[in-house]
Amino acid sequence: MLFVPGFLSQVYDGLSGFALSGLDAAVRDHLNRVPLIGSGLAAAVPSLRVPIPEGTGLSFYTQERKLTDLGIRSTNIARPAAAGFNTQQSVHANAEAIKTVLDGLRASGFKRVVIVSHSKGGLDTLEALLTGERLWKNPVVGWVALQPPFFGSPVAAPGGLLEKVRAALHAPMPLAQALDDLTIGRRTAYMTQWASAINKLTTTIRIRSCYTTYQATPARNLLSAVSAGESPKQILRSIGLMDGFNRAIQEPNDGLVPMSSTRLPGVVPRELLPAADHAASVMLTAPLREFWTTAERDDHTLALLSEVAGDWTGPS
């Protein structure tokens, strides 16, 4: 099993680690530097960890542990980053990294590998396979693409939020290229250019392209919620992480990717239920609204794996 996470997932990993232990460690480190009494102060300070479940914000965290329990070997190409893979760089650069990892697995004797990608990781994987036909069937026997923006996302449109983020951060070239790779214009041209190769790919290995949709409710009146006696935790858990985007996209979507964008020519699209946002298929998002339970997330992954793995019967 090779997991290929989506855009900025390594940033989420870092934020999650900081929330769970980094804040606490940083404060204790500063206190330890206080002359004479620093060590005592550091020892006396209560834990400052944010009260969220382990694994919150980490892509494929629960699936990796489920597979381990089942005795199935898996690798997350981004944790730790392998062969130069970086979720903040271009599709082309990550495709090269994926091919390097797959070549390494084949050289190590792995003849049957299933790829599970999420979001932009699906674009990275598609290019790796289109430019690495040698990898088809040996070792790649199947691919599950979760919420892939094959035809781009309006969120990445010129003048949209991601472009504003890029400008605000003075984004370096790799990040700028990654953002460009997600635009509808670039993706539409790409899918047209590679149409023949995509048709050959989809008739050679088993592929599932999956999407989710949901409909955000209108913004809640926070004053009314407070006056009704709802706790901050209750209010947070009623808010979807991507509600603003969800309402802005003018077709069924998961908060970032329109349903139509997930269609890979030659592959019957699969809707995953119940209704869910773009994060639900791969991660916990506590303390915000959780669309799926861990069991639902893991069960979907295992069912899809069994479909694309063919006659696979053991760890690989």
Report what the structure shows.
The chain is α/β, with parallel strands linked by helices and 316 residues long. The chain has a single domain (2-19, 54-308), classed as Rossmann fold (3-Layer(aba) Sandwich). Helix content is 43%, strand content 9%. It has helices at 9-32, 38-44, 61-69, 91-107, 120-130, 161-169, 173-180, 184-193, 195-202, 222-227, 232-236, 243-248, 294-308; strands spanning 2-4, 75-76, 113-118, 140-146, 206-211, 269-271. Strands 2-1-3-4-5-6 form a six-stranded parallel beta sheet, sandwiched between helices. Helix 1 (9-32) packs across helix 2 (38-44) and helix 4 (91-107) packs across helix 5 (120-130). The termini are close together. Mean pLDDT is 84; it is low at 312-316.
> Which CATH class?
Alpha Beta
Q: Largest beta sheet: what is the strand line-up? A: 2-1-3-4-5-6
Give the biggest sheet: 6 strands, parallel
Overall 3D form? globular
How many domains make up the coordinates? 1
List unreliable stretches of 5+ residues.
312-316
Number of strands: 6
Radius of gyration: 21 Å
On the 0 to 100 scale, the average pLDDT is 84
